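Quick illustration, no need to memorize.
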Amino acid sequence: MGADDNRRMNTYTAPDGALLLPHWGLIRARGADTLKFLQGQLTNDVALMPPGAVRLAGFCSAKGRLQASFVVWQLAPDDVLLACASSVLPAVLKRLSMFVLRAQCKLSDASAELPLHGVAGASARALLGDTPVWTQRAAEGGTLLRLPDVDGIARCMLAVATPPADLPALELDAWRALEVRSGIPMIEAATVEQFVPQMLNYEIVGGVDFKKGCYPGQEIVARSQYRGTIKRRMFLFECDAMLVPGQEVFHSGDASQPAGMVVNAAALSATGSVALVEVKLAALDDGTLHLGTVDGPLMKQRDLPYALPADAALSA
C-alpha cells in the first residue's frame, strides 16, 4: 500500500455515538448441559472460557463450511449468549436445536429480550473505562462487551433491554464500516456455507481452537490448517461501487470463473464501499480484481489491522 492509500484510510471521520444494531441477533442457551452442548458444536473452546471473557466462534456444516459466526459470552455456566447476524439466526437456531437431543439445554431467540446496541468513539471510551478487549461486564439492564478498537476508535456492544441514554446518534453505515475495517468477519445469509474458517482468517482473529474436541466439520478445518491447503484468504478492499455480501469478484486475467466473494461490506459514501473479500491468493500476484466481471469496478486493496501468515502475506 502506498502513501496515498494510507492517507486515504486516515481520512475517515471518527464516529461517535450509539445505535441499535438491526443486523445482529441474539441466541440464548440455558440449562445444566449448556457448555457441554456448545463445546460439541462450535469451533472455539467455550467450556474453558474464563469468567468475564468474550470469544468468537463458528458453527460449521459437516463439510467444514461456516453456517454462522458468533460472539459468545457467559452470564453463568448454565446461561450463555451467542450474538450472530440476524439474517442467519432463525435457520441456525433451528439447526442447533436439532442437535440438542437429550441434553439439558434450551435454545431461544433473545433478540427482543436483549437488543444489541453499538457504541463507538468517545462515547464508547467513556463507558468502557479500563475494560480489556474481548471481555464483558455487567451494564444496566444487561451486558457490555469490549470489542477491539479500529484505527484508535473505541467500540463496544451492549446487550440491554433499555438503550443507552444521552448519547449522540450514530449512523448504521459508520458502525458497519468499523466492523468491516476491524477485519473480523460475520457470516450473513448470502455467505452461509461458502467458507472454511481459515478462508476468512477466523483462526487468526481467535475464532478457532485446534486443541479442543470434535465439532461438526472439525476434521476438515484441522486438515486445512495442518496440511497447508489454504489457497484463499480474506482481505480488505475499497471500491467505487456499492458492495453487498455474496457478490463475486473477478481477476482481470480470467473471465471464466470468479476469484473471490464479498464477505461483508459497508458504504463509505453514496457510491463507494469498504469490504472484506475472500480471494484466491494467486489472484493477488499480478493483475487487478474487479466487481462482478473482469471489466467491472476496480477493487483497491487496503491493509488489514492484523498480520496474515507468511504465505498469504507474500501474495498480498
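The first strand starts at residue 17 and ends at 20.
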